[in-house]
């Protein structure tokens, strides 16, 4: 599998480490059901068949975190971008210099 790093270009997957699901959000520790929410956050995972967003670390290259959209059935990658771009888009600061 080749992962298209936005900085280094297409690279072999052996240069990367997969962290896992990029769609998870950490629960609020002050919530009344925090213990149950953290249990689900840590131990319960979906096993999707099809397109899935994952976090990958390019340790053998530019040392950047990437958000990769990969089809779990075929391993075809349809999108790869810096994970920092994901967090700035969520904060509404995507157009900064």
CATH homologous superfamily placement = Folate-binding superfamily
CATH level 1 class label: Alpha Beta
Number of discrete domains? 1
Shape: elongated
Helix content: 10-25%
Second CATH tier, the architecture? 2-Layer Sandwich
Organism: Azospirillum griseum
GO biological process, one term: tetrahydrofolate metabolic process
Protein name: Sarcosine oxidase subunit delta
GO molecular function, one term: sarcosine oxidase activity
Summarize the structure in short.
The protein has helices at residues 34-43, 83-90; strands at residues 2-5, 9-12, 17-21, 51-57, 65-71, 77-82. The chain is an alpha+beta fold. The protein has a single domain (1-22, 51-97), classed as Folate-binding superfamily (Folate-binding fold), CATH 3.30.2270.10.
Topology:
Layout: E1 2-5, E2 9-12, E3 17-21, H1 34-43, E4 51-57, E5 65-71, E6 77-82, H2 83-90
Antiparallel strand pairs: 1-2, 3-4, 4-5, 5-6
Looking at this protein, list some descriptive labels:
97 residues, Folate-binding fold, four-stranded antiparallel sheet, disordered C terminus
């Amino acid at each position: 599998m080749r992962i298209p790093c936005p900085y280094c270009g297409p690279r072999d997957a052996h240069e990367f480490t997969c962290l896992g699901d990029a769609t998870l959000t950490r629960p609020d520790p002050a919530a009344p059901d925090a213990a149950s929410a953290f249990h689900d956050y840590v131990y319960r995972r979906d096993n999707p068949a099809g397109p899935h967003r994952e976090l990958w670390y390019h340790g053998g290259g530019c040392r950047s975190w990437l958000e990769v959209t990969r089809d779990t059935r075929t391993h075809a990658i349809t999108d790869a971008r810096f994970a920092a771009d994901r967090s700035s888009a969520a904060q509404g600061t995507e157009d900064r210099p």
